[in-house]
Amino acid sequence: MLAFRVGSLLSAIPRLHGGLISPHTLPSVNARHVSVRTAMTASDEVVKAQAAALRLLADDDESTIFDRIIAKDIESTVVYEDELCLAFRDVAPQAPTHVLLIPKVRAGLTQIRRATDDHATLLGHMMVQAGSIGVRECPDGFRLVINDGAQGAQSVYHLHIHILGGRQMTWPPG
Fold first, then answer.
1. Active-site residue (options: 98, 158, 160, 162)
2. CATH level 3 topology of 65-165
3. What three-state secondary structure class fits 112?
């Protein structure tokens, strides 16, 4: 088992995809260090999620890629937008239809676990919009997914709902 300090792993992340370390490696987080172990079926997204968890992005920290999409600094294919949320096509789709729905204001919503009663109206609005988008994009059925934390494979710490469809979903997921 290889061991890295947190800073060492973060600086090694580009090398994960460069082939020096197998793309099937998962960083595991503990309080003192990060150990890297080989996993049989790890995906690049899981590796990204584990690395993102190490950064522990706070609400007032640097902007995420989603903040830059909201600001129109990064181009996206928008499928829905209102004053509270934005939905756009995922650039790395995991199904024939893969749309991401995000709140326009991240405050307090880096993860679903951080939601409070103050977020109930926004989260309810997002679920209604996710259902409407799902029906429009995938009339035969769809799946909604919210990833939370490292083990939930959350790679962007800005709450987002995946709307997946266009094929038969399998069970159990993940």
1. 160
2. HIT family, subunit A (3.30.428)
3. helix
Q: Which helix (DSSP H) or strand (DSSP E) does residue 51 occupy? A: helix 44-55
Residue reference for tokens 């962007």: 156
How do the domains of the chain map onto residue ranges? 2-55, 65-165
Q: What are the strands, taking DSSP E only, across 25-77?
A: 25-29, 34-38
- The reply to whether 160 belongs to the active site is yes
pLDDT in tens, the chain (174 residues): 333 333 333 333 333 333 333 333 334 333 333 333 333 344 677 777 676 666 655 555 678 999 999 999 999 999 999 999 999 999 999 999 999 999 999 888 999 999 999 999 999 999 999 999 999 999 999 999 999 999 999 999 999 999 999 999 999 987
145: helix, strand or coil? strand
What gap in Å lies between CA 32 and CA 4, rounded to an integer?
10
Instruction: Please give the model's pTM, rounded to 2 decimal places.
Output: 0.71
Give the DSSP H/E element, type plus range, for residue 146.
none
Three-state SS at 160: coil
